[in-house]
Amino acid sequence: MMHPLPPRVSVIDSHTGGEPTRVVVVGGPDLGPGDLAARLRAFREKHDHFRSAVVNEPRGSDVLVGALLCEPGAPDCVAGAIFFNNVGYLGMCGHGTIGVVVTLAHLGLVGPGTHRLDTPVGVVEATLEGQNLVTVRNVPSYRTRAGVRVEVEGIGPITGDVAWGGNWFFLVHDPAPEIAPANAERLTDLAWRIRQALAAQGITGDDGHEIDHVELFGPPTAPGAHGKNFVLCPGKAYDRSPCGTGTSAKVACLMADGKLREGQRWRQEGILGSTFDAFATLEGGKIVPLIQGSAFVTSEATLIFDEDDPLRLGARP
Ligand code: PYC
Fold first, then answer.
1. Contact 243/278 with Cβ under 8 angstroms?
2. pLDDT, position 85
3. Are 6 and 27 in contact (CB under 8 A)?
4. Which residues of the chain have pLDDT under 50?
5. Residues whose CB falls within 8 Å of the CB of residue 226, separated by 6 or more in sequence, listed in order
6. Which residues 6+ apart lie within 8 Å of 210 measured at CB?
7. Closest residue to atom 8 of ligand 1, CA basis
């Protein structure tokens, strides 16, 4: 099977609270017409090799999240963005949206102010507050199930909530090992076992969607933070940032429990100690999270895909 790749692809890398985003600026595939969900289908079905080539080794790594800029389907959007990772595609990506907006500003394509960005799960609004600080108005977020008990192999029963924040999350109630880089392997192992148990026991999001993000919590250590999280992403890499969609899911659960009021700030810390500030607004009875964080551009690069390179399509060790 032929897997054509352009010889050169221009990307801009950034990080948001330590979590990297690679925005494809030139050389991405043409995904044809339609809304962002249709373009995502075209990406998955016809150009999945491009995803792997751009984010997997040797040009990328498991932790990298890619963003393909494309024509928006919804009106008045500055761009469409499809987020992808080492194993597939994300509905939305909070840290990635912050990275995309700071990258667009770096390119001189947007200035301070509010910009609409189309994603496969709906339009989000992002306000560039300065050069690096961005507030994302995420898609409506909600909890579907509270206090779900799952039997985890080698661990025992674990309880948590199922919530949507632009991706599906299981937010664990039980205390986790200390959330710190030194414990990353233990945390990964625990979260991975929970994810497998959820799948095996048929615990899903709406419409049978797999819960592919698991969020563990512990006491905060950063100034002013209300909680610290560890988020395991679909391809077994953990989010270095506090995870924008995971923070949205958390805010939805806090609101559902009456522990957070509309407009009240929730400062979410991630494993590296970086933080996102979150606020919830209520719009037509729906919880709409606002997530604020900073991104910094780290490089402008040209990826080179030599036809003779046996690893041009990317590989995972
Ligand atoms: O920030 O929403 C996020 C995210 C999802 C996966 C990695 N980061």
1. no
2. 98
3. yes
4. none
5. 220, 266, 267, 268
6. 168, 199, 204
7. 243
State in Å: Cα 93 to ligand 1 middle: 4
Q: Which two tokens stand for residue 220?
A: 């905060």
What pLDDT is attached to residue 197?
A: 98
pLDDT at position 1 is 59
Which atom, in ligand 1's list, is nearest to the CA of 165? 2
Kindly give, in sequence order, each residue whose CB lies less than 8 Å from that of residue 41, ignoring residues fewer than 6 positions away. Answer: none
Q: Are 5 and 53 in contact (CB under 8 A)?
A: yes
243 is catalytic: yes
User: Tens of pLDDT along 17-33?
Assistant: 999 999 999 999 999 98
What's the gap in Å between 239 CA and the centre of ligand 1? Answer: 7
List all residues 6 or more positions away from 104 whose beta carbon is below 8 Å from its beta carbon.
78, 79, 110, 115
pTM for this model (two decimals)? 0.97
Ligand 1 touching residue 93 (CB < 6 A): yes
Q: Which residue has the tokens 């949206």?
A: 97
Separation of alpha carbons 288 and 142, rounded Å: 9
User: What residues have CB less than 8 Å from 159, skipping those under 6 apart?
Assistant: 147, 148, 149, 150, 172, 173, 174
